[in-house]
Amino acid sequence: MPASPQDRAILRGLATQVAEIAALPVQQETIALWKALNGLKPVRPMFMMDQLPWHELNVDDELTPRCEDAFCRGLEWGLRATLYLWRHMRADMVVEPFVDIPKAIGNTGFGLGAVENQLATDPANSVVSHQYIGQLRTEADIEKITDPVVSHDEAATAQAEEIAHGIFDGLLGVRMQGAAPVLAPFDIIVGWCGVEGLILDLADRPEFVHAIVRRLTEANLRMLDQYESQGLLCSHQQLIHCTGAYTDELPAPGLDPAHPRARDLWTYGMSQIFSTVSPRMHEEFELPYLTPWFERFGIAYYGCCEPLDRKLAMIRKLPKVRKVSMSPWVDEELGASEIGGDFVFSRKPSPAFLARDTWTPALVEADLRETLDACQRHGCPVELILKDVSTCRYQPQRLWEWNEIARRLVEA
């Protein structure tokens, strides 16, 4: 059913503000800057802020929902978050004149979920600690991993699209978006095996671990086949792993907009649990499985929190890699010297500065300068991606000031 007059008025009021921002010339200027960076010919360093503690950020009711209908509240949240970021910490975000609506895609999953205990320090925060209980102990247990079955509720997608058009027509375009699959098998497997169990099995039962990741990789590739065959991949990417995804290299030639292919898209992969394993072990358990996945796509991003400054030799063997994560635990000088101009040095500055008892902007500036100086010395295209911010101690102004510091430095 269409949105109520009250909900529609709220959403159109917000959409009017977003449309005015999207029409500013700076949006196309920022897109051009992202394309230059992603083409390894940067005009300047770029920066983004993502994965924020939104429950701590509501100032003057800017994020307080007003809509009554659940679907409309979801749309409202997206618009309010966009406006909030633009007002307070826009970084190098791009505001487009569209509302993206997810298609009603079903996915049965891999047959297993995590069995875990959780601990939280703030009940309002979705960031919690996890103690995973091992479920895969024998070869027979691997049979519990199933191939996902992907489906599309076309009627539900059409209904959502119709409602969205009824709300936004004349202000913002409506884009129905499909899936943007990624492959991080060990981020899933650790939830099935437990942290200690998996780390020990890498050394004590390597063939058992190979059998698990081989089975999960096969299941992911079959899932990707279904997304492609049913035309359920996404048709536009603004972001790839919290960074700008704009590029002139995608889509690949021959695109049918009704049936996007993996080669028209970015993807990413990671193995965060491998933070403490050797480069040799990391390569043994990652390269054979991530390679066929990356080969299917147009461009790839590799890594997340795992330190990769000593693992660039493996990353160079992966196809299509354009950006490499440099987490807070890397030796930046070493990472920059290993990367040179071959990849984007995707720096993840430490979010811990935002969680300290005392906010010290000088520490943030020194940290960011260290990154920028190292990349300048070694000719690295660089982006600063502040993410995984679990708290700013209910002082959102800390994030706003981080934005201003980063802006001043990248534009210097």
What labels would you give this structure?
single chain; 412 residues; alpha/beta; TIM Barrel; 6-stranded parallel beta sheet; two-stranded parallel sheet; 12 helices; 42% helix
Short characterization:
With about 400 residues, the protein is an alpha/beta fold. Helix content is about 40%, strand content about 15%. It is globular, with a radius of gyration of 22 Å.
Account of the protein in words:
42% of the residues lie in helices and 13% in strands. The strands form five sheets. It has a six-stranded parallel β-sheet, sandwiched between helices. A two-stranded parallel sheet has the order 2-7. A two-stranded antiparallel sheet has the order 3-6. The chain is globular. Helix 10 runs parallel beside helix 11 (361-378). It is an alpha/beta fold and 412 residues long. The protein contains twelve helices and 14 strands. It has a single domain (5-411), classed as TIM Barrel, CATH 3.20.20.210. It has helices at 5-22, 25-38, 70-88, 154-168, 185-193, 195-204, 206-229, 279-296, 312-315, 332-339, 361-378, 397-411, and strands at 46-49, 98-102, 105-107, 116-119, 129-132, 150-152, 173-177, 239-240, 243-244, 266-269, 299-302, 321-326, 344-347, 382-386.
